[in-house]
Design a protein that fits this description.
The chain contains eight helices and five strands; from the N terminus they run H-H-E-E-E-E-E-H-H-H-H-H-H. Strand 2 and strand 3 form a beta hairpin.
């Protein structure tokens, strides 16, 4: 658009009334907007003005001026097409900037100055302050930023190292912000990975803690059970000591034949029960010894089976006899 045509369009848009009226209400603000837009279009002829509806994040719809076009960034392989919306409270509120993507390329993921929706930001915008800040300087700042940090995905984000010329203070700040952003992104990824590892370790430690608590509880229960068994055994020891004193033999001395004779069955059936019980336990001990010898290889498999069969048969007869004797005692004919 020619400068004269752009000037007429801006004047007509700013001072129109009725349904086409813009959302700028203060007369002095309109004058500042006009001067800044004309200065911007003079510095960047590739941009052209227009008006349209803009919807803010809170849902508010306003009628605003904007300029759109391609930035003169020769180092970028793709044209950087953007739209600069002049906020309804400009110049005290900075403009809103959006980049236009294409089906063939998209915004570089993790770009320090452009999010995935295309909304652009920069230290210049974040420190916007009228009258020091204006549209022309903002656009020049964007050209420098996108020269050093191209916004599209198929272009290296580290190309700013290829410009060895001494940067201005503003360029140095922008470069520093970009470097810090990439460093923070890398650090954030590392911290997230370490946090995930620590959370996994925490889960493992919690499981081990639960297992340990369960083991401690079981050991406490076993300890309590053993104490109760010790108490019962001691009570039986007391009874046995009293009996031994009454029958003239001490538990501290070795059992002699005379002492053993104190333990006699009351009758013939009781004696047979004791003998069968003793024989049963002796056979059980013999089987246990045979098992150990077989595991060590001292007894062949055939001999082991024959002996076990013989002992098992004999043990069966002793147990059957004991059951029969018990029944005869409990249920006499």
């Amino acid at each position: 658009m020619a400068p004269s045509t752009a000037k007429k369009f801006i004047d007509a848009a700013l001072y129109s009334a009725g349904p086409h009226a813009l959302s700028y209400t203060h007369h002095d603000h309109k004058r500042i907007i006009r001067d800044h837009l004309l200065s911007l279009l003079a510095d960047f002829p590739s941009l052209s003005p227009s008006t349209d509806r803009f919807v803010h994040n809170d849902g508010t719809s306003v009628h605003l001026l904007n300029v759109s076009g391609c930035l003169p960034v020769s180092a970028n392989p793709h044209p950087i097409h953007l739209t600069i919306w002049v906020h309804q409270f400009y110049p005290f509120v900075p403009p809103l900037i959006f980049l236009t993507t294409s089906p063939t390329y998209s915004i570089l993921r993790g770009h320090p100055f452009v999010d995935t929706s295309g909304a652009a930001s920069s230290p210049y915008l974040q420190t916007w302050q009228y009258p020091r800040s204006n549209l022309s300087d903002l656009t020049r700042n964007l050209v420098h930023i996108f020269t050093h940090h191209p916004p599209f995905s198929d272009f290296s984000s580290t190309s700013y190292h290829s410009r060895p010329s001494l940067p201005s203070k503003r360029e140095a700040i922008d470069r520093l912000v970009g470097i810090l952003y990439y460093d923070l992104t890398s650090l954030r990824t590392q911290v997230e990975n370490e946090t995930e590892d620590l959370l996994s370790l925490q889960v493992t430690l919690k499981k081990r803690t639960q297992i340990t608590v369960t083991m401690i509880k079981e050991l406490e229960e076993e300890k309590s059970s053993l104490k109760e068994r010790v108490k019962q055994v001691m009570e039986k020891v007391d009874v046995l000591q009293i009996w031994s004193k009454e029958n003239g033999c001490g538990l501290t001395s070795s059992f002699t034949q005379d002492a053993c004779e104190k333990f006699e069955a009351e009758d013939e059936k009781s004696r047979q029960i004791l003998e069968n019980e003793a024989a049963d336990r002796a056979i059980e001990d013999a089987i246990e010894v045979l098992d150990k010898e077989a595991q060590n290889g001292s007894v062949s498999c055939g001999a082991y089976i024959r002996q076990i069969r013989t002992l098992a048969r004999e043990q069966f007869f002793h147990r059957a006899m004991r059951v029969k004797l018990h029944n005869s005692v409990l249920y006499p004919p």
